[in-house]
């Protein structure tokens, strides 16, 4: 069940219900009811808020066997910040290639 998955991921991150709720901008009571399997059908909007905080994708919340790896929430937030600042995928790829080149020059 999705509530069990959320609870497990939250505990792996050593987060309290309050911390998850605050960071995701959702109600603590809703997370609690989800984790206790009282709420079994969360909205996609809700999942989109908690998934990055838990460091996973919405797909992996819905299907833990999807084979997707956990993603560090800090990386997710960094990528979002880059996108919001106007950096294109191509510019980001160029930076990565430049950084690889720079490391190899040492």
From TrEMBL:
Protein name (database record): Transcriptional regulator
Keyword Transmembrane: no
Sin domain: residues covered: 62-100
SUPFAM superfamilies: lambda repressor-like DNA-binding domains (SSF47413), SinR repressor dimerisation domain-like (SSF47406)
GO MF annotation list: DNA binding; DNA-binding transcription factor activity; protein dimerization activity
UniProt KW keywords: DNA-binding
Residues covered by the HTH cro/C1-type domain: 6-61
PANTHER family in the record: HTH-TYPE TRANSCRIPTIONAL REGULATOR, HTH-TYPE TRANSCRIPTIONAL REGULATOR SINR
PROSITE patterns reported for this sequence: HTH_CROC1, SIN
CDD domains attached to this UniProt entry: HTH_XRE
A GO cellular component entry from the record: cytosol
């Amino acid at each position: 069940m999705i509530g069990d998955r959320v609870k497990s991921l939250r505990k792996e991150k050593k987060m309290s219900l309050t911390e998850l709720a605050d960071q995701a901008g959702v109600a603590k009571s809703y997370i609690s009811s989800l984790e206790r399997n009282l709420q079994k059908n969360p909205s996609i909007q809700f999942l989109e808020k908690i998934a990055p905080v838990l460091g996973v994708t919405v797909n992996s919340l819905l299907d833990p066997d999807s084979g997707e790896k956990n993603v560090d929430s800090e990386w997710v937030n960094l990528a979002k910040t880059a996108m919001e600042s106007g950096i294109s995928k191509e510019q980001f790829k160029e930076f990565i290639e430049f950084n690889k080149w720079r490391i190899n020059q040492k």
